[in-house]
Every structure is written in structure tokens, then in C-alpha cells.
Amino acid sequence: xxQINKVIIIGAGPAGLAAALRLQDINNISVTVYELRExxxxxxxxxxxxxxxxxxxxxxxxxxxxxxxxxxIPQMVVHSINGNELGRLDHIARIKAKTGYGFMRIKRTVxxxxxxxxxxxxxxxxxxxxxxxxxxxxxxxxxxxxFSDGSCDTADLVLGCDGIHSxxxxxxxxxxxxxEYSGISSMSSIVPVPTDLEGMHATFTxxxxxxxxxxxDNLEEKELFWFLTRHIPEPDAADKRDGWNExxxxxxAGFKNTLQDITREIGGSWGSFLHDVVSxxxxxxxxPVYRLPRRxxxxxxxxxxxxxxxxxxxxxxxxxxxxxxxxxxxxxxLLKKESTPLEDCLRQFETIRRPRIEEFAAQAANNGxxxxxxxxxxxxxxxxxxxxxxxxxxxxxxxxxxxREEDWLYDIDEVxxx
Length: 418
Prior knowledge:
The chain is of the alpha/beta class and 418 residues long.
């Protein structure tokens, strides 16, 4: 492999900042990060990071600040429409016992702040307000980035870490691949609520699923992240962006009525608790869930897509950030193989990563479909199925039945690359 002395990273989200830290620390590569936005983004609510991702954040040296700003989730609790508890998934505690890492729910901004602070401490240049407008691979030996302000930069390798609407993908790597609507949309908010609630709590209703989970543990008043997931048809407007903007305005303006209508179905003290959460909610985020088709190209000779830029999936397995982190750590390992040409390394990267990504993408789509509208008989059948599954796991000690623990125990640094 020709020596990689400099890498340009497009995108200063979790994927881009993690890549910068890893490549500088482990590969001794000079790294520069460019970000479209004028400042670190405060978009997004709270995100899941299972054990397979948390251990990688620890290896990046940001575990402690994340522990201070997030919440470790001990279990998942499923509630019926009547407000009764159908059962609990407690495999999370067993995974923590095996790995030393739990299931973290944390505000996305806290993750970005921790990674950015670490990057600044390490002297990594991060430039904001830099919109990429062109990419030129010079005879396969380097790649030059041109930005809207007229500035340029050249590197041996470019990482597109700029999300589902990646400019690196659209301008250069695979312009034909565009995001597709999943049929599912989400509404969410973070609300300060005085409560001792622990774990992730999910309730399926006839109109969608409602989930609440702590996202901060160390504040005087605990913050809860709630999200409503449901089926919403794609707008008929010729311009989908305008159609969604119009729909978003309606959803945000009428969110109280929507939530009260949905949570009114849920009975008991649990239903009352959800009503209280709704009453304390002042603002919401609404977003249609898009994903990328699985057939896309991930790399050229000198550019490679990382995380959502390559393989954005629905969020219904909670593995988005972890998949990006695994991408970063695998690429770092492959770039240390000095006898292997760069393009062969990038091909191997894609070969190793695709099966795991596609498995999670299929699982996420299946989980999302559970949030589609259901009639009374469908609700009853689903609740009985969940109850029977959870009961069988407990009575017969089938703790791993229906749960692929190996997905969370997975360590990308242990994957064979020879």
C-alpha cells in the first residue's frame, strides 16, 4: 500500500470525529475534519448505544464523560394497552456482566461534545461552515476537495462521514443512490420529569408504539426521552421536501392532541404516567424515517463512505452509531496492513461489513413494521404473542431465545482480517 499520510474527513458527527481520533492515535495519520454546519449540531434527541458500541467509545477515551451525561439502561419493559406489564427483557444486564459495558441511552449532543472535546485536546483541526461542492481523484493517487468558499484541500484518502444525505456519496462515490422513505415516521422530545423510572418502556397501541426511557441519570431532575413511532403515508406533493415540511408543521402544531388521542388508549397507572409526560412536553421533533437501499457502492480508489453515508438504516435496532464506530475501527485495522494495496483494503472493508449491516437493516425494518396501525384483533394477538414469548424465556430459562446476544457481544477488533 502506498503510504497514507493525510486523511480528509467530511462530517463532524459521531462517525467523523471517531474516525479522526482513531486514525490519528492508532495509524499516526494526519487528519483534518470539515463540517457543513456553522457549529456543532444540536439536532437529534437521544440515541441508543449498545455494548458493542460503548466499548469502542471507551477505546477512544470518551467513556467517562458519556457516563456522566447519559443513562445506562438495565432492561426493557413491555406494557399492554391496558397499562399492565407484559414482561421484561433483562438480557442487557447479562451482556454487561460478560463485557463490562451496558446499554447506553444518551443525548446525541452529549456524544458529539465529548468527541469534539477529545479531538480538540488531540490537536485535530475541525473546520465548520465548509460545504463540499466537488471531488477530484487525481489519477488515483490522491483526492482533492473543493468547498463553496473556493478553498481546496488534498489528501491520500477521503472519508465520507456526512450522513444519509452525504455530499461525498452524491457528488462522487455513488450519485445514483438516494434515500427512500420507510413508511414510518417518528415524533420525539426530551422532558424533565421527576421519576424513579428505570429501563426502556415500550407500549404498542393501535396507532403506533410509544417508548419512554431515561437519557440522563446524574442531573437533579431526570430527563426522559420519549418517542412515538407510527405509519404515515408519504406526501403526494411532487416536491417531497415541501410535502414533508407542510406535514411537519401540522404534526408539530397539533402534537398535544395527537399524543393525548394515542395515550388515551393506554389504561391504568402507566397510562396516567404517559399522560403526565405528554402534559409536560412543550416542543417536539417530527421526522420521517428514511434509509438507503442496500445495493449502493461504498468506495472508489481514494474515497470511502462510513456509517449512515454508506448504509443508513431505520433506527429500530438502536445500532446506527455503533455500526459507524465499527466501520471506523475496522478501517483503521485494515489501513495498518502495509503490504495490501489501498483499494484492496477498501474492498475487504466492504466485504466484511456488508453482511452484518444488511442483517441489522432487515431487523430494523421488521421492528419498524410493528408500529403500523392495528385493529383490535391484531393488538390482542400481538400482546398474547409477546407475553407468551417473555413467559417462556423466564419459565424455561431460555434467556437468549429470540435475542441474538452475539450481536451485542461482537467485538470488531477481534474480526479476522488476514
